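job 3f2a | input accepted
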Amino acid sequence: MIRFYLVHKLYIWILFSISITPYFIFYNHNFEQLMLADTLQVFFILTSLFLLALTAIYISGKLFPNLINFFFISLIVGIGAALNFEFFYTDLIVNKVVPLLPILNAKLILVLAYPLAILVVMACFRFEIFKIFFLFFFLSGWCLPGVQIVVKALNDNPTEVRFVEADLKIDSDKNIFSSKENVYFILLDGYASEKTFKRLSYNNRIFYDYLDQEDFVRLGENGSYNVTYMAIASIFNLTYPVVEGDPKFTNRLSFYPNMLSHETAPLLIQQLKYLGYDFVFSGNSWSGCDPKHVKCLKYTSHGFLSRESSVLLSKTIFGRYLYLIVDHDYDAISILIENFSNIAKDENSKFYFLHHFSPHPPYLSDDCQTPMGMSLMAWEPARDYIKTVGCVNEKAMKLISTISTHDPSGIIVIQSDHGPVTRLNWLNPIYQSEDAHMKNRIGIINSVKTPEECRQWLKPNIGPVNTVRFVLGCLKRKEPEYIEDKTYIAVYEGEDFGIVKEYLSD
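job 3f2a | predicted structure (506 res):
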């Protein structure tokens, strides 16, 4: 084995660098969003692939010593280089190059690119200068991000996010309640506002007419934040967790969905607990469900893969086949419908929170069941978004009908965390956001079906935070403690991560 390493150490280092480069770039690029522990499975998968390839090379050398297994080594390195090429450049090819060549098919280009890339690498490996180039190229591919990760870690001083709780006291007097209606809070991830649909030239009248028929009241169409992790955090904490001028935070661990795993439950759950409510959660593969403070209708995950592993693999050829072997359940609505009869038997009143991942990508196929891909960022084309909205409408109407039949007194909220991405450039600094596209992003659906006696407390155009405060007030049969409606914009990564800017719409 030692002799094997000495003879092939150059190839081994090249192969190792090829295998591990995606991990370091992935972790470095998403440093603010991840904990090291979250990425260990990714590291394990990639190093396992390296060891598997190394073992195959070693065995081939033993079986065919006269051939010095040059062909096998160069073939494996070529495949590894092709996989790296796809990881880094597939989006570029599909989104930038292919539109310039309309007569060619994107998939055909990728199919032809693979063997071509492998052949080029195998041919280059005949020359020592190219071996050195490959070694330098792939070593720098993971060494430079590795150094950046170390620097970030040394300079990382986590800032505790300020969650304002002093303005809303927790009621411990259960006698203040005059009724115990169940609440159904249905959050449709990425569902657009009515104004946004008009800008997208889509007539969503069928759904709006249905809500009108079911006696829903339409509320404000501006979300609290333009990013999921903060938007849903504002609902759970009944306030804006971070406002303009607050200290810059360094990670997302204080926000949704991590906040459901914290030692102290979010304020909404605390309020409901004192009121005698069970908090029932139906999530998705992105949010999962931690039973620490909630009752999980179903534990949702990517099967044996972590969310981080799935995101990384979605950028490779393996991602196209991943859904064949893992749980890809994004359907929180169907989970509730399937379990409705069982959970309804419980005597305790319930607050159901459904984080339904659609119409957020991955978009659904024509059967409204099968995701068409794995990417969580593939918002285009708009026609696929609209098609998925149609699927969501059908599911939402089915759920509302089920609730109306079996629990007619139930309070129902239909809301989204943010709208779609329409050519919004996330790489721009937060203070240079394109207003036209940001309007689409912060525009949400927000409607409530409520008992008649609570309607006196509804104010026009209230946002998500005040909507959930209204629901609590309605349960108590007392005037809600409203705060000022505001909208903030933030980013997922980059130089401006950790700060927010108040969005002032016209």
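job 3f2a | The first helix runs from residue 2 to 29.
job 3f2a | closed
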